[in-house]
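During the second year of the project, the team shifted from modelling isolated chains to modelling whole assemblies. The rationale, set out in the original proposal, was that interfaces cannot be judged from single-chain predictions alone. As a representative example for this report, we include one of the complexes processed in the last quarter. Its constituent sequences, exactly as entered into the pipeline, are reproduced here:
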Amino acid sequence: MSKKPTNKGGFVARRPSQSARYQPADLLPILLIATVYFLTAKFGLSLAYGTAQATTVWPPAGIALATILLLGYKYWPGIFIGAFFANFTTNEAPLIAACIAVGNALEALAGAAWLRRVKFHRSFLRIRDVWIFIGVALAVVFISALIGVTSLAVGREIAWTDFRTTLRVWYLGDLMGLLIVAPVILLWQKQRLVNLFHKSQRGTYALFGTVILSQLLTYFRSYQADELITPRSYQAFPLVIWAAIRTSPFGVALSTLIITMIAVISTTHGRGPFTQQPTIEGNLISLQSFLFYVVATGMTLAAIVAERNVVTKNLQIEKKELSESKARVEGIVLSIAEGLVVVDAAGNIVLVNTIFERLTGWPRRQVIGKPLQSILPLETADRRPIPASERLVTRVLLRGKTIMTGLSPQPHYYVRRDGQRFPVAVSVAPIRVGGIIIGAVNVFRDISEEFAVDRAKDEFVALASHQLRTPLSAIRWYTEMLANQEVGPVNKKQRQYLDHIYRGNLRMVDLVNALLNVSRIELGKLSVEPRPTNLIDLAESVLIDFQADIQVRRLNIVRNFDQTIPAISLDPQLIRMVIQNILSNAVKYTPSQGTVTISIGWQPTLGSRAKAPARKNVLITIQDTGYGIPASQQGMIFTKLFRADNVRKQETTGTGLGLYIAKAVVERSGGQISFTSVEGKGTTFTVVLPAEGTKKQPGTRPLITSSK
Amino acid sequence: MDTAKKILIVEDEKPLLDALTDKFTREGFSTFGASDGEEGLVVAQRIKPDLILLDIVMPKMDGMTMLKLMRQEPWGKNLPVILLTNLSDFTNIADAIENQAFDFLVKSDWRVDAVVEKVRQRLSQESS
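Output from the structure prediction step:
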């Protein structure tokens, strides 16, 4: 079993097609083959008892097939020459000897070609190889036997009446030559010998010792006529079974070769169990028939064992790979830098990682198998314990959806083993195997720091709001009262100055409001409070706010309202701000006497041929004939604090926050905002809102809306 | 001016208190001022104003505390109150509604004239 069977390489030493042309160097091997063939043939013929040319022992058949298989087709002349001279020197007419030699060579060539064709592998490690080999041998042996015996009969070496008997002898001799000799040669490898007779393989020595000894004891003794003789030979079966189980196909081949040699020699000397036929030839026929079953059994069994070994080995490899990959996955899981706890379907802890141990203070050993609720209690910010039935894990196990929680709106707290607690961001995902939820993976993170940062930001927002707005209010109100001449007349220049102060003040108020809104959006604290809202009314009310600016700039306002739009569930304050921010840009950045078109209608459904188009989305479009946005800067306009170069020159006011806020608000309301713009021609902003409205989203802060 | 409505302004920021006091006086109201919740309670109890403009963030006693205490008194139970706020200090709307302060205005977002208008509007609602 030194080699795994593969279809590539190994079954022939040389590719026969590549060496089809003869070279001078080929002469020596051909002569060598011829010599070996000649000698073994002579030995076989020496055991011919009926007809001088037909013998039950024909080892050269196996040598011939193995040679062709191993070396290539072109060495057939060696077989022909060897066979010719073996027969010729047995007082055969040259023509008959040549015919017999052709038959012998053809048998080897046909056998080799056939075996190659069916992808026989000479390792005999698969049952199919063993059976193919036996099958091919059973078939090709006819070639040599038919040609040989026919030649003999035609040449009058034998009588036609002996044709069948001689054919049988010839057939059996060649067959056993193939089955017993060829496997030994095909399997002959130094490594196999080393493996077989390695020091550690004491069993091999015991096996071969037993084979030789028992066979000698069986075959080299005489039996009484009334002894039950035949069963004695059956001990060959346990021996080859032993060889098959304990060694390899090679071991089996060697064992059967030894058994055959001992049996054949003893039988030709009239000893052993196969002595009941009147002639030695008859005894040899019985013996060879018997040995056929021995070798077929042994080789088949060896292949079964080999196949089983391959399967076992693969299983071991797979098992090893499996355990390695399991260890790797576990290593990855345990090394996750966030707290990890896996629970089964009943909510009991199955696995935790190192971060879990560190964050909760519980060692792994003490939590496995315990209910998560008892190990890691959950609390709200105001220390109200959350019951197991309300935990994320329970909800995930029930509904099979992944759930995440975090800072917003209010974090939950895990209580450590020592009673301390920390705010957590948790994500829980179900584990499904074959569609069934078998547990849940709970990953969590200590968000104390984020929480502190969040609070600091909140405090900053409050401080900025209070500290900035108080003086802004004072400036605003005093300026208003001065400009109204409530405390005395104001001259033209003074009024102009007051006007500047007032506008500066309003800009600062807007900026503070915008900044606070941005802060709220970024904290995720923006609350959405939808209620049925008429978008057209909303747009009209925004237009009223801009009345003064529109008149000053003498802008032409076009209204394009589809009156079939129903009241939609939206947060009116938020959507008002969106319209306001976009309209403010349109008014601000459109030159005198330009046109601003505001449209509210259904979004046309693309490619819809239905008579009643699906009214899924509502479009708010605000189109102006203004300065437009430079193409190079169009990608930036929803960016916080960004203002396009061309409008900076036109208008110095503007916070650069309006569109950023508008986009955040629209998206939070479940809609989309987009625009098209050509510099110098104008800009069109489009807001798409779902007609089904916005869902209520709890946040802690409303957005700061317009000035009064 | 004997029918002048009495307005109490409770505001800790002197410039704002002065601005509103001046404005409301000029607008014909009988105007009183207080610079924290404690003082506000004392003055309110004494003069029984028709309406209070109440700031929220103040030293000693904040606006919401003053409002709650006032609501427990018979004279202050139904007294109209408009909260002055910077919005960020005004997180608990429910709390305010519970104490019958339905109006609140963000100071910097309101013109001073609009504040006066709002007060007039509220007073006319009360009298009708």
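The CA atoms of residues 105 and 187 of chain A lie 22 Å apart. Confidence is low (pLDDT under 50) at residues 1-18, 608-612 of chain A.
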